[in-house]
Structures are given as structure tokens and as C-alpha cells.
């Protein structure tokens, strides 16, 4: 099995997205992700987004290049781009949930980077990723 990789970023839509625009984006992402063994979640609040996706490193990097090349959003801010031991969102080709602005702010201001003293400890789960996992789990339990 190829090594796994995960990326988390936020971005802002260039134009307001209707529910049908968002659905089209999710259908496209799910198809691409399914074909490339990528899993993850997309959170959105108005025109602000946070996405976490994971899978084989080469596929994840291809997906990220595709995302960064899209003209549908701007202000792409990367929080995490690193190898992982196991998938966090293995059941989701691309899960999606509406969030509040304060929830998105809390997730985006969490610690996402390794501290120098933690570089020698493996596996390391950034607190931001752990927080995102708990948030997602709570959202799924409400459904």
C-alpha cells in the first residue's frame, strides 16, 4: 500500500455559491476522489470553506494542484500537508457539512503544525486534526 498523505486548507469562494453550485462541486469532488482513493470532508459557511482530504500521496498532491488551480476560490491557506499513518475520514469520499462562522474560525485557529519538540515523535496528530475529527463525529451523531 502506498504511503498516505493528508492536506487541510481553507479558502473563500470568488462568487457566492448556490446550493446547486455546491452540489455540483461535491459531485465532481466525489467522483475524482473515488477514482483516486481519496477520502475527506468539506465544511462550509457562506463562501468560506475548510477541506481535509487524505489518500495515497501522489493522488492527494494531484488533487491539491487541481484545487489550487481552480478559479472558483481564492485565499487558499494551507494548515496541514503531511504524511499520515491512517485515514481520519475513511468512510467519506467527500463528506460535507454546513458550519457556523465561529465553528470554522475555531477549527482554522487550532494548532495544525508540529512543534519542534514533537518532530521526533511518530505518529503525531496535530490538535487541529483531532479537533476536526471530533467536530465531524459530533455532526454525524446529530444526523
- The total count of strands amounts to 5
Overall average pLDDT: 89
Order of helix and strand elements from N to C terminus: EHEEHEEHH
Hey, roughly how much beta strand do the residues contain?
25-35%
What gap, in angstroms, lies between the N and C termini?
A: 33 Å
Shape: globular
What strand order characterises the main sheet? Answer: 4-1-3-2-5
Count of DSSP-assigned helices: 4
Fold topology:
Blueprint: E1 4-13, H1 19-35, E2 39-45, E3 48-56, H2 57-69, E4 73-84, E5 95-98, H3 101-108, H4 127-142
Parallel strand pairs: 2-5
Antiparallel strand pairs: 1-3, 1-4, 2-3
Could you walk me through the main structural features you see in this protein, from its secondary elements to its overall organization?
The protein is of the alpha+beta class. 38% of the residues lie in helices and 29% in strands. It contains 4 helices and 5 strands; from the N terminus they run βαββαββαα. A 5-stranded mixed β-sheet has the order 4-1-3-2-5, with helices on both faces. Strand 2 and strand 3 form a beta hairpin. The longest helix has 17 residues. It is globular and about 40 Å long. About 5% of the residues have low confidence.
Amino acid at each position: 500500500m502506498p504511503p498516505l498523505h493528508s492536506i487541510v486548507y481553507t479558502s473563500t469562494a470568488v462568487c457566492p455559491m448556490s446550493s446547486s453550485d455546491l452540489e455540483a462541486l461535491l459531485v465532481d469532488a466525489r467522483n475524482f476522489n473515488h477514482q483516486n482513493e481519496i477520502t475527506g470532508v468539506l465544511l462550509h459557511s457562506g463562501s468560506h470553506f475548510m477541506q481535509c482530504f487524505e489518500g495515497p500521496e501522489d493522488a492527494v498532491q494531484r488533487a491539491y494542484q487541481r484545487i489550487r488551480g481552480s478559479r472558483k476560490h481564492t485565499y487558499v491557506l494551507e494548515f496541514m500537508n503531511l504524511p499520515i499513518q491512517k485515514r481520519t475520514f475513511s468512510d467519506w469520499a467527500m463528506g460535507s457539512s454546513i458550519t457556523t462562522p465561529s465553528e470554522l474560525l475555531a477549527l482554522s485557529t487550532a494548532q495544525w503544525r508540529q512543534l519542534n519538540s514533537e518532530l521526533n515523535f511518530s505518529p503525531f496528530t496535530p490538535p487541529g486534526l483531532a479537533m476536526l475529527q471530533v467536530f465531524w463525529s459530533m455532526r454525524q451523531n446529530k444526523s
